[in-house]
From TrEMBL:
Residues 4-64 form the Conserved virulence factor B first S1 domain. This is GntR family transcriptional regulator. Residues 220-275 form the Conserved virulence factor B-like winged helix domain. It comes from the Bacteria. Belongs to the CvfB family. It comes from Shewanella jiangmenensis.
Length: 276
């Protein structure tokens, strides 16, 4: 289906001096300007392009890849402020408008804003909104424990990091399950840890499978050997310190050292870990 604000495959129907025209279905023939036309393009050939509106609100195609398409969330840089709102760099020659009415907090030039890209039904223009909750699903989530999901980090809280799950629901990664630096707008995969009775979703960034735990254990042993048989880390060490030293979450660390202790490969003392 051909949609404005989406990447699609369109056939070349006509070549002109300033580009080629593509068959965009209900949008008619849309121009792909010369600077985006791949060398050797011929009539009848299909090209992968992104459809959006030019400065005169006419549908146009580009081979540039946007940082977010319609229906997606992304952290975009504010490049300028005008009388109608802020303009965001979304990877195309024409910047994306974030209207004042759609700003949850005032945009600042040079800063990043987490926004949702959508089509404003009043004028059919592609715009951004910082009022994210308007575009999230209010119905109860139907995920199952262990489901793999796509995440967009929405910011840090006292409990952990908020994340948008599959572009649909808010979820939370607790601090104890964070094992690498996270920033607002970061896109990554995760897993459903549990659906709570109040409808909230807990998330993890890995499943804690045997293969993952084995890899963590091997890494810990290598670090111990490299450090002469001692690391000043234990189950009371702060999670940030463990990540900085080993690149894993505190939960994964505790499981791994527990397994290594049972195998007799290390000792766990109050001041840290010792190779046996």
């Amino acid at each position: 289906m051909i949609q404005l604000g989406k990447t699609c495959r369109l056939a070349v129907v006509k070549q002109v001096s300033f580009g080629v025209y593509l068959n965009a279905g209900d949008y008619g023939q849309v121009l792909l300007p010369n600077k985006f036309v791949p060398a050797g393009t011929e009539v009848g050939q299909e090209l992968t392009v992104f459809l959006y509106l030019d400065s005169e609100d006419t549908p146009i195609a580009t081979t540039q890849k946007p940082l977010a398409e319609v229906g997606e969330f992304a952290s975009l840089k504010v490049v300028s402020i005008s009388g109608v709102g802020a303009f965001l760099d979304w990877g195309l020659d024409k910047d994306l408008l974030l209207p004042f009415a759609e700003q949850k907090r005032p945009a600042e030039e040079g800063k990043y804003q987490l926004v949702y890209v959508h089509i404003n039904r009043a004028d059919e223009r592609i715009v951004a909104s910082g009022k994210l909750d308007k575009f999230l699903d209010k119905t109860p989530a139907r995920y199952r424990q262990g489901d793999e999901v796509s995440l967009v980090i929405g910011g840090r809280t006292e409990l952990g990091y908020k994340a948008i799950v599959n572009n649909s629901h808010w979820g939370l990664i607790h601090h104890s399950d964070v094992f690498k630096p996270l920033r607002t707008g970061l896109k990554l995969k995760g897993f459903i840890k549990q659906l709570r009775h109040d409808g909230k979703i807990d998330l993890v960034l890995n499943k804690g499978t045997k293969d993952e735990l084995d890899a963590h254990a091997i890494h810990i042993l290598k670090k111990l050997n490299a450090a002469g048989g001692f690391l000043p880390l234990c189950d009371k060490t702060d999670a940030d310190v463990i990540y900085a030293e080993l690149g894993m979450s505190k939960k994964a660390f505790k499981k791994s050292i527990g397994g290594l202790f049972k195998q007799g490969k290390l000792r766990i003392e109050d001041d840290g870990l010792y190779l046996s």
